[in-house]
Automatic annotation (TrEMBL):
It is found in: Membrane. This is Divalent metal cation transporter. The lineage of its organism: Bacteria, Pseudomonadati, Bacteroidota, Cytophagia, Cytophagales. GO terms for molecular function: cadmium ion transmembrane transporter activity; manganese ion transmembrane transporter activity. InterPro entries: NRAMP_fam. PANTHER family: SOLUTE CARRIER PROTEIN FAMILY 11 MEMBER, TRANSPORTER PROTEIN. Keywords: Membrane, Transmembrane, Transmembrane helix. GO terms for biological process: iron ion transmembrane transport. Its main location: membrane. GO terms for cellular component: plasma membrane. It comes from Nibribacter ruber. The chain crosses the membrane at residues 37-55, 76-96, 108-131, 143-161, 181-201, 222-249, 269-295, 307-324, 330-354, 366-388.
Length: 396
């Protein structure tokens, strides 16, 4: 019975991380880059998966061994750093959650013809109900699993119907015609950037999966999370590739919707609404939960009333969406912040991995450190570039 519960927790953490990553931005990024790079986007996906695994293993292992949340690890590395990182995470989480709420509204609009604002309120209510029940953690785990499986099945269906050129996709994944560095960075940031990689790591800690003895389980859960998100990415890539190979032109206003509609007609369009809704609601849950875990250790009242703070986070995000509409400038800034958060947080984790006061006698694998440093440098460069390029647009 205990092993079944343990497996459920590990799988729940993996799905929470994966479904937090698979939001409206994830769906749009995948279709847009496939349209731009064609079959060569397979190489970008492959390389980003390897980087994602390196990032996630570094972060989750150190969290488990130290038995501390990321902000507490950061404060142990340098006093005050945890507060700074928490501020970035929460601000970025708010901005992205507004986009998630908007995506859920779009999903309801496609499915039922509701206005995006009404749809967003209904989606927020669904997310809030999860945190009103007594065992919210278990409900959250199961909800993420069900929605994750639903998304995978629907996207696989559309990929099969679109009949993509599998041989070309396989060949170009190994020998691409072109390599787009920005696409690689965007995919890594969208899968393990900002709050996303901490969603599952903090969930495992809350569920009691901690200590050096738990590392094999932590490794399985971390890799499973990346695998789930990657399966969704790969099949969405194949679905889009099948559509564009047949000469269909994607709608710039909503590229993922046009993929589903081109592949499966009006039924496909409704399926897109369902996928968008599942992706958005699970991302709302993951963003709110993880953002609040970054501030719960700062005050007893937050820790004792965690679920109410999560509900407040969702409610405020929804209110801002309803009042502002499409907060383009806010989302641009959030994207830039996301590019900067990962190198700061991962760099902090790598430093913590070599401080005995944090990890005790644990020895961090050298290969994880080396590839982790490479990921930090890559994301720092591209995050800084994005911030310099995009910030002026906010004030133009």
């Amino acid at each position: 019975m205990k092993s079944e519960r343990n497996w459920s927790v590990l799988l729940g953490a993996a799905f929470l991380m994966a479904t937090s990553a698979v939001g409206p931005g994830f769906l749009t990024q995948t279709t847009v880059f496939t349209q731009k790079l064609g079959a060569s986007f397979g190489f970008v996906i492959l390389l980003s998966i390897l980087l994602d695994i390196v990032v996630q293993l570094n972060v989750w292992r150190v969290i488990a061994v130290s038995e501390k949340r990321a902000q507490d690890i950061a404060n142990a590395v340098f006093p005050g750093l945890g507060i700074f990182i928490s501020l970035l995470i929460v601000l970025g989480g708010f901005a992205f959650n507004i986009g998630n709420v908007g995506g859920a509204g779009l999903g309801f609009q496609v499915l039922l013809g509701l206005s995006p604002e009404v749809g967003a309120i209904i989606a927020a209510a669904i997310a809030i109900v999860i945190f009103l029940v007594r065992e919210a953690g278990k409900v959250m785990d199961r909800f993420a699993q069900v929605m994750g499986v639903l998304m995978i099945l629907l996207i696989i269906y559309v990929a099969v119907v679109s009949d993509p050129p599998l041989a070309e996709a396989a060949t170009k994944t190994i020998t691409p015609d072109q390599i787009d560095v920005m696409a690689i960075i965007t995919l890594v940031g969208g899968t393990v950037g900002g709050y996303i990689t901490f969603a599952g790591g903090h969930r495992l800690l809350d569920a009691g999966v901690r200590g050096e003895a738990a590392l094999p389980s932590v490794n399985r859960s971390a890799v499973s999370g990346i695998t789930i998100a990657s399966v969704i990415r790969v099949f969405l890539f194949l679905a889009t590739l099948g559509v564009i190979t047949k000469g269909f032109v994607l709608d710039d206003a909503n590229p993922p919707a046009s993929v589903f509609q081109s592949a499966a007609g009006s039924v496909g369009y409704k399926l897109f609404g369902l996928v968008m809704l599942a992706a958005a609601v699970t991302s709302i849950v993951g963003s709110a939960y993880t953002s609040v875990t970054f501030i719960r250790t700062f005050h007893k009242r937050i820790d004792q009333n965690e679920n109410w703070f999560i509900i407040g986070f969702i409610a405020i995000s929804t209110l801002l969406f309803v009042l502002i509409g499409k907060p383009v400038s806010l989302l641009v800034l959030a994207g830039a912040l996301n590019g900067l958060i990962l190198p700061i947080t991962l760099g902090t984790i790598l430093l913590a991995a070599y401080k005995t006061k944090i990890i005790g006698t644990y020895h961090h694998p050298l290969w994880l450190t080396v590839f982790g440093v490479i990921a930090v440098l890559m994301m720092a460069y591209m995050g800084g570039y994005t911030l310099i390029q995009k910030l002026p647009q906010l004030f133009s």
